[in-house]
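Q: Two folds, back to back.
A: First:
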Amino acid sequence: MTPPDPAALLARDALDRLDRWEPVDPRQEALAAEYRAFVRGDAGPRAEAVRRDGGPQHLTASCFVLSTGLDRVLLCFHRKGRFWVQVGGHTEPEDTTLAGAAYREAREESGIEDLVPFDPDPEPGVPLDADPEPGAESVVGAGAAPSAPVDVHRHDLAAAFGTCRTHWDVGFVAFADPDARTVVSDESEDVAWFPVDALPPGTPDDFPVRLATVLAEVRHRRRAGLPAG
């Protein structure tokens, strides 16, 4: 029996998470619908949608690394793009989930191993739509999808990015201690923490709004996870 294509499984995982996500921002919901159509295609999840070599347009996975107080964000200065942005990049053959790809990229590009996913996956063997156990605490609230995205952002790329022409980025969130030691990767020239309301010169024009939307998404899920009353 031929084993399933890992990229096809990753595409299905990406589609499942996008299907379950209910963004706070209507603009994100509209764009997420385009993402679902891009990944789904005409005959089910498309493996080429998540592969770096699947064509000039493909999904990428990124991670907004935040302080637990949501007042600081970790950014890298992208070597090719020449801008400050959240960490992230292409999926790799060993990635089994899109969220896992985002957290792997975050560790590789920041050097911080002790990242805490905001919206962790359930334990192995627990279905994505399983209800939490009675009395169990939840970061995101009952019924929310584990490792649901917090951001989708489609952007065209300059010639410096080679054969890649458009990245359909899917963003997740993890927390880290701003005092944790960071290491600059080969993809970047620097990595540093910044106040969320004092971003450095050189961030893309739309990044402040994008970050504000991510923070609103996180706050919304935190409120949804609080006990009634």
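A: Second:
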Amino acid sequence: MRAGCSLRGKSVSEEHALESGKGPRGALPRHMVMQVKKSEGGGDATLDGIAKAYVLVEGRRTGHEHLYAYERNEQKVIFRHTDHLDDKVWIPEDFHPRLLNRSDFVVLHHNHPNGSSFSATDLRIFSHFAGIKLIFAHGHDDSSYQAEIRQRGNLDRALDAVQGMASDWYRSNAHPLVACHNDTAWLTTHIMCLILHAADIIDYRFDGNAECRPRYDFAGLLGTAFISASATQLRTTLRSGK
């Protein structure tokens, strides 16, 4: 999921977006109704359930990343979108102004075909758009991740620092772990998010599938002391302003 200057000039077509107030609240395209009911065991009527079902059904069908955004206070869908790529999806520029209101509680759902956790690029979305408070990533392997922003002003500096911490730990300690995703960076991104959570930069939650969850839990246990020390170091760095 991407945002930034490179989005300038990008337009969004009606088939890729659902603006607030257009059509039934949170409604899915007709061709997806039976697929969602089948995949969700009858379907979750909440917008979170609908959004998750949408990005997973469409993602598994196409192999691409899809994005679904809604505003929680008003319970209105903002847009649905895909760039037809398997490793990223951009927030359409047409909707940038809609995502800047600090009083809004915008929720983003998107899918990760490889099942990995949030990348630093995913999390930097919080820095670009003050209205976005919560993001979800849903893996095609049934893993699921969510991050809610706690310290927006410190996020970019925290990410700059923590990426190196997580990579160093992975290179030194993670070789006994067998990655359960095709993407070998799965553990690095997970450890990065655990450090940010421990430092209260984000509220991070995850639910791995039956195969991955034990490895995720073991990685968290194996890295407990490192995560705590890194979070302390990160808080000190942020307070110092360096």
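Q: And?
A: Residues 52 and 174 are 31 Å apart (CA to CA).
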